[in-house]
Design a protein that fits this description.
Structural class of chain B: mainly alpha
Oligomer: heterodimer
Helix content of chain A: 25-40%
Helix content of chain B: over 70%
Number of strands of chain A: 35
Largest interface: A-B, 41 and 43 residues
Distance between the termini of chain B: 19 Å
CATH topology of the largest domain in chain A: Glutamine Phosphoribosylpyrophosphate, subunit 1, domain 1
Structural class of chain A: alpha+beta
Number of domains of chain A: 4
Largest sheet of chain B: none
Distance between the termini of chain A: 57 Å
CATH superfamily of the largest domain in chain A: Aminohydrolase, N-terminal nucleophile (Ntn) domain
Radius of gyration of chain B: 16 Å
Number of strands of chain B: 0
Strand content of chain A: 15-25%
Strand order of the largest sheet of chain A: 3-35-4-5-12-13-14-15-23-24-26
């Protein structure tokens, strides 16, 4: 033996193995363990699924009570036929895990404030620890725990979720190390067991996405800068153009919950002061939205109702949605599901169809807490010092010591902002957050019942217990009924309650009660023969409760206009409408801009772009240049109008909604904010429109030179992997549409599922989502629907009986599950 | 002949070990083979290097072929290897080869008598 070379070589070999067996940090990003990652027998190669992979399989589990047949069609959509209903949820859990395990766990880790555990405190540009702290302090885990109690107290959801969880875990237990999903290998961690709590965490994640927004701090800041009159001009609570979900003129019964406004609101709450000191960050608002509508048989060619839904959400890979059919002795349903929860979420069954859009009501408010001292042990409430409770949230951080957030709990809710975690106004105060998602609620029961629903009464019963996030549930049945209800458990609020930070020294500003479900805006079989919702306000101002700020205006307007004009509606007509790129906002705004523009002051080159805008057909199609020119000009107008006022503060303000400026200018060209308060001259709208065009012209020219003046290129839509890895994303998709357009496809979000269902004797349905059934980036089913989605094409949805499925030549693979 | 035997044994042991043990089982396989099969040090290195280059190269090649390059192309974009699936295969083969080669070299010195020229 040659000692010296042996030792040297042994050291080299060991060092190589160790270096290849630990994650290294390169440029702030962690790399996988290269050796394990590259190993063809264990690493990423094992996730490279053969394109002709055979999904046929026969499995036995002791948890099952009967037989379950699953047929996969050529798009890899599973059609589950179970002899026992709960077995269907077991298989649903198993299949969700088989195709989407990493995503399910990642999303629930995000909801639970556990991303640091896998990503480290920071990675790249992202501060995961800060994000985790935010979710913990918001009370996401607290809320999920509350709701879990309710879920487990109900025998239906308890057995359903238990079966689902068992299915997920049965898959996880069957996983060999080489089979774990790609992302675990990339980030070097392992899947953990699923729990019912994780299902609740996922639902809270959806609550956060859809009912977790607020601008209370920004609005409070605005209140300190603008007079009450100016404030109402910037942030009105409704608009003339609003075409509400429940048509104007509908009569509402008086409120059964009568709210009492605190006596001191004028002095301590409503906008009043004009204080000119503080600062600003411009934050243009971007919102999640959705469309749904339903037309009665009287307006369709077939005589059967048609229901359409396209929820607009962040566009991600793996997709939020997973398509499936679930058939049990009690019901037969088809639609999209959330990997992470049982049941079909949006879809149809043998008797009826349902869809949702976001209600967007404000259910998240803050209260300023007065603590006796910085220990937060006691706070002032109704005249006496009250003991706080505490909740310790331990955040594990990869590669370093755990972090503990000690959160004071008050009657108002968890103290989200304190000395250790300051709010965005950096005012050093304590704020507790009261969020509807903290409450114990059982949303899964609603979806379970919707899957079983046979008629309008079943639908109303199913949704009446639904609490958060508030949704506009649209409904159609084979019996011919069409209906809509804005459902959620909404706090009954007095005018502008919760628009600003509220005093939290007594109970006077607390939510005083919830609006009973039966008083939620509802409409059944209207004379006009259609119903729709597109995130606009549910009602006009005759509804006896305060609805909160105005979300959307224009999509609702164009949908209602088109539907009222259409007759003998076909499924193809609905497909065209769902993917329509007509820009009604530009239809209203363009004439206004052109009216005030003095063209004689433009250069020939500028006129060139103006002419393109003038000749634009108002359709935001991918190849049109008009939409780009319009957007640049209009954005520039908004900035010119508001920037001067907003420069009065460095702290965050809420940028006024674009409908606010349009509606104001339509009413009165001498809108107060048009004048630039920084100059001695008084600017009028013509000055602003001209200077804004000249300003925007630079960007038009630049975009043109870079060959991205065409709207599709300028907008640059992409569907991004949850880890934001470009190689695992589909970027630069040639697609039209955008904000205020029915085809609401913007840069990174838009129609996350398009569905059209005709409730004829044999249900005819179409659907598509921008993703694929497999969450594995190494599968050909990972992004297989994206091209169809981009082109506005749909797939016919195979809604088959067990017998037909067994013999259908559309079915490519079969999995059978039976009792062990 | 001994060279080929070493190559073959290293390939076989590495493959079989890879079915049950972590990836670095290839180092153990190469080390053991080199300690048992009498080869000069450089030949031992080369035999293991070639064995693993071929084993990991061919395994990944066939997986990639059946996958129609879907995943290797994506992984090659983040490694970063310019999105080339061929580069991904070659790097895989090379990493396995280097580890096995040094392990074999170590093994060969275990067996080589002291002061005997290489």
């Amino acid at each position: 033996m040659r000692i010296v070379p042996f030792i040297i070589c042994a050291i080299i070999t060991t060092a190589l193995v160790i270096a290849l067996n630990i994650p290294l940090t390169i440029g702030g990003n962690k790399t996988p363990c290269i050796g394990a990652f590259l190993s063809p027998q264990q690493g990423f190669w094992q996730n490279a699924e053969p394109t002709n992979y055979d999904f046929n399989q026969s499995l036995k589990f002791s948890n099952l009570h009967g037989k379950v047949d699953v047929y996969f069609d050529d798009r890899l959509v599973p059609h589950i036929y179970a002899e026992k209903e709960n077995d269907a949820y077991f298989v649903q859990g198993f299949l969700h895990a088989k195709f989407r395990l990493w995503q399910m766990e990642f999303q629930t880790h995000a909801a639970a404030g556990r991303l640091s555990e896998i990503m480290g405190a920071t990675s790249g540009e992202t501060n995961f620890l800060r994000i985790d702290k935010h979710f913990r302090r918001l009370g996401m885990v607290y809320g999920a725990e509350q709701s879990l109690q309710k879920l487990e107290a109900d025998p239906i959801t308890k057995t359903e979720t238990d079966a689902y969880t068992a299915g997920v875990n049965a898959y996880i237990a069957s996983l060999k190390p080489n089979q774990i999903p790609f992302e675990y290998k990339l980030l070097n961690y392992r899947p953990e067991k699923w729990t019912n709590l994780k299902t609740q965490l996922f639902l809270k994640y959806m609550s956060y996405t859809l009912a977790g927004g607020d601008s209370d701090f920004e609005m409070t800041n605005a209140k300190s800068i603008f007079s009450a009159a100016d404030f109402e001009k910037l942030y009105p609570t409704t608009q003339d153009s609003l075409d509400p979900i429940i048509p104007k003129g509908t009569l509402f019964e008086p409120a059964s919950v009568v709210t009492k406004k605190p006596a001191n609101t004028d002095s301590v709450y409503y906008p009043s002061a004009v204080v000119l000191d503080t600062p600003l960050v411009i934050q243009p608002d971007r919102r999640n939205g959705s469309n749904n509508w339903v037309v009665a048989g009287s307006k369709t060619k077939s005589g059967a109702p048609i229901l359409c839904n396209d929820p607009h959400l962040g566009l991600n890979l793996p997709s939020l949605w997973y398509e499936m059919q679930i058939s049990t002795p009690n019901y037969n349903a088809y639609g999209v599901t959330f990997p992470g929860t049982p049941s079909i979420i949006i879809g149809f069954n043998d008797s009826c169809a349902w869809g949702v859009t976001n209600a967007g009501r404000d259910v998240k408010d803050y209260y300023e807490i007065e603590f006796r001292d910085s220990t937060m042990e006691e706070y002032m409430y109704n005249g006496s010092w009250t003991k706080s409770k505490f909740r310790n949230e331990i955040i594990k951080v990869r590669g370093q010591a755990s972090d503990t957030e000690r959160i004071a709990m008050t009657v108002f809710g968890p103290v989200m902002y304190d000395k250790k975690f300051p709010d965005i106004l950096k005012d050093g105060k304590y704020y507790a957050v009261r969020w509807k998602a903290h409450d114990s609620s059982n949303e899964l029961l609603t979806f379970n019942k919707l899957n079983h629903a046979r008629n309008f009464i079943d639908y109303i019963r199913a949704i009446s217990t639904y609490q958060t996030p508030g949704q506009n549930f649209v409904f159609a049945s084979k019996a011919g009924d069409i209906a809509i209800r804005q459902q959620g458990q909404f706090p009954a609020k007095w005018l502008r309650q919760g628009d600003f930070l509220m005093p939290g020294i007594d109970s006077s500003y607390l939510w005083q009660g919830f609006i009973p479900s039966r008083e939620n805006p509802t409409l059944l079989n209207p004379d006009r023969g259609f119903l729709s919702s597109a995130n606009q306000l549910a009602t006009d101002e005759t509804y006896p409760y305060y609805l909160g700020g105005i979300p959307e205006i224009y999509r609702g307007m164009i949908i209602n206009r088109k539907l009222s004009q259409m007759n003998s509606i076909t499924l193809q007509g609905m497909q065209q409408l769902q993917t329509d790129n007509y820009n009604v906002f530009a239809e209203m705004t363009r004439p206004l801009l052109l009216k005030y523009l003095d063209e004689s002051k433009l250069s020939p080159d500028e006129i060139n772009y103006l002419d393109k805008l003038k000749s634009w057909n108002l359709r935001s199609d991918k190849n049109e240049e008009g939409p780009t020119i319009f957007k640049l000009w209009w954005d520039s107008v908004q900035v010119s109008v508001f920037k001067d006022e907003f420069l009065q503060t460095d702290l965050p303000l809420k940028w006024p909604d674009e409908n606010t400026l349009l509606e104001a200018l339509l009413k009165d060209s001498a809108y107060k904010f048009v004048d630039d308060i920084r100059t001695s001259a008084v600017e009028n709208i013509s000055d602003i429109v001209l200077s804004a065009f000249k300003e925007a012209f630079k960007e038009m020219k630049e975009a043109d030179v870079e060959n991205r003046l065409a709207w599709g290129k300028f907008k640059d839509t992409g569907v991004r992997h949850l880890l934001r890895l470009p190689a695992f994303s589909r970027l630069h998709l040639p697609v039209g549409g955008g904000v205020n357009i029915i085809n609401a496809t913007s840069g990174n979000h838009g129609p996350s599922w398009r569905m059209i269902v005709q409730l004829s004797d044999n249900i005819e349905a179409y659907g598509v989502y921008p993703g694929g059934q497999s969450g594995n980036p190494g599968s050909k089913y990972y992004d297989s629907f994206i091209d169809s989605w981009v082109e506005g094409k749909y797939y016919p949805l195979l809604f088959l009986s067990h017998e037909t499925a067994r013999t259908s030549n559309k079915m490519k693979y079969t999995m059978t599950f039976s009792e062990a | 002949m001994k060279f080929l035997v070493a190559c073959f044994l290293t390939t076989l042991l590495s493959f079989a070990g890879g079915l049950f043990f972590p990836w670095w089982v290839i180092a153990i396989a190469a080390f053991v083979v080199a300690a048992v099969v009498p080869l000069r040090s450089f030949q031992a290195f080369l035999s293991a290097f070639l064995a693993l280059f071929v084993l990991w190269g061919l395994l990944s090649f066939f997986i990639d072929l059946q996958n129609q390059h879907i995943l290797a192309t994506k992984v090659a974009a983040i490694l970063p290897l310019g999105g080339s699936y061929i580069a991904a295969i070659l790097v895989t083969a090379f990493i396995g080869a280097v580890v096995a080669g040094f392990a074999a070299l170590t093994g060969s010195y275990l067996r080589t008598p002291a002061r005997k020229a290489v």
